[in-house]
Amino acid sequence: MSSTRRDLFHWVDYLLFTLSLASTLIVGIVIAIKDRWTSESSEDYLMAGRKMNWFLVAQSVFASATSSTLIIGLSAEFYYMGVVFIWASIGLMLAAAFTAIFTVPKFFRMRFKVTSAYEYLEYRFNVQVRMLVGFIYVIFTILFMSVVLYVPSLVLSQVTGLDIRVSICIGAIVCLIYTSLGGMKAVIWVDNIQVVIIIIGLITVLIKGMMDAGGFDKAWSIYQFGKRTAWDE
């Protein structure tokens, strides 16, 4: 790899990247050790004991939905298509609101506790429906996670010169370790850490982009010049 590509990452970037990976591993290990002394039930492992704070859970859902495909891919779509692509985002927000208001409360009001939507399908219909939908989701997840791992690994390899296969392995191994050790509780806490990183990163990029463009007015004029301000095209 050329030195120019490696120089894109400063030592501070390497430090922050290492700390973000280390923090996820530490959270998983600490929770695994703590829960081993308090409880070993499957409900604690898979459902975090159903005792997590609602705000932490909401942040975790947000982080899970805001994957690399959304952060990187959505930015590219907005650049290519313009603000008209915001209608897709509005649709996602409406779907999330509908789920939060009507679907999720139904699970809590059920006389029997379920751990997944697939278990509910078995109660509502039969085990064949549960297995079919579960199989479809497994296939979808395999394909989806391939993209989710590939996209940030591609970016990391571009700015560090690291082989993309090594980048993919690093991300996959870290996720497997903290998830398998700490269970759902570790996933929720790590997701909350990632939400903070995402928000800080987006705000930083926004401010830096505006400064490099010469201010908001200049950036918006460039956006208009590229014909990306139409809402109905």
Low-confidence stretches: 1-6
For the biggest sheet, the summary is: none
Q: Give the radius of gyration.
A: 21 Å
Number of helices: 10
Strand proportion, as a percent range, falls in under 5%
Average of pLDDT = 80
Tell me roughly what share of residues is in helical segments. Answer: over 70%
Shape: globular
**Straight-line distance between termini:** 41 Å
| Total E-strand runs | 0
Task: Indicate the structural class.
Answer: mainly alpha
Order of H and E elements: HHHHHHHHHH
Q: Please tell me the total number of domains.
A: 1
InterPro entries: Na/Glc_symporter_sf, Na/solute_symporter, Sodium:Solute_Symporter_SSF
Membrane topology: Multi-pass membrane protein
GO biological process, one term: sodium ion transport
Keywords: Cell membrane, Ion transport, Membrane, Sodium, Sodium transport, Transmembrane, Transmembrane helix, Transport
Question: Could you please describe the fold and organization of this structure?
Answer:
It is a single chain. The chain has 233 residues and is mainly alpha-helical. It has one domain. It has helices at residues 3-6, 11-38, 42-47, 54-65, 68-81, 86-109, 117-124, 127-160, 164-213, 216-225. It is globular and about 60 Å long. The model is unreliable at 1-6 (pLDDT under 50).
Main features:
sodium transport, 233 residues, disordered N terminus, Sodium:solute symporter family protein, symporter activity, single chain, mainly alpha, Na/solute_symporter
Question: What would a concise description of this structure say?
Answer:
This protein is mainly α. It contains 10 helices and no strands. The protein has one domain.
